[in-house]
Design a protein that fits this description.
Length: 126
């Protein structure tokens, strides 16, 4: 094989490998990190977002959804998340690979300070 052909085959192998690695690490939303956010606030305010390419975009979209009245928030990538809250204001958050797991975790943390916790908001960004 001549040098030029070897070089071309090597370049093709590298590019193919890079493209494959990028596709394997990308989330189903099309980005490497599929960002989302969940948030809650006083007087029943809540917001969520999912499938954004940056954490800031996810935060901004969720904050817009709660009309900028949210005070507690969490961002996450390539997962599901939930916020649960009790009537006394105590809250908990959970992140997992499925909605039920995220909600169960949020309820568990909330139950450490409240007895009547309910999931207020959830989102999945995978």
């Amino acid at each position: 094989m001549n040098g030029r052909l070897k070089h071309s085959l090597f370049a093709l192998a590298v590019l193919t490998g890079l493209a494959g690695a990028q596709a394997a690490s990308a989330g189903s939303c099309g980005y490497t990190y599929c960002w989302g956010a969940v948030m809650i606030g006083p007087n029943g305010a809540w917001g969520y977002s999912h499938s954004w390419s940056t954490e800031q975009q996810a935060y901004d979209a969720a904050m817009e959804g709660c009309k900028y009245d949210c005070t507690e928030y969490r961002t996450f990538a390539n997962a599901c998340a939930a916020l649960a809250q009790g009537s006394n204001g105590y809250w908990g958050w959970g992140q997992a690979q499925s909605r039920p797991e995220a909600e169960a975790t949020a309820l568990s943390y909330c139950a450490q300070g409240a007895y009547d916790c309910q999931v207020r908001v959830w989102a999945c960004s995978q």
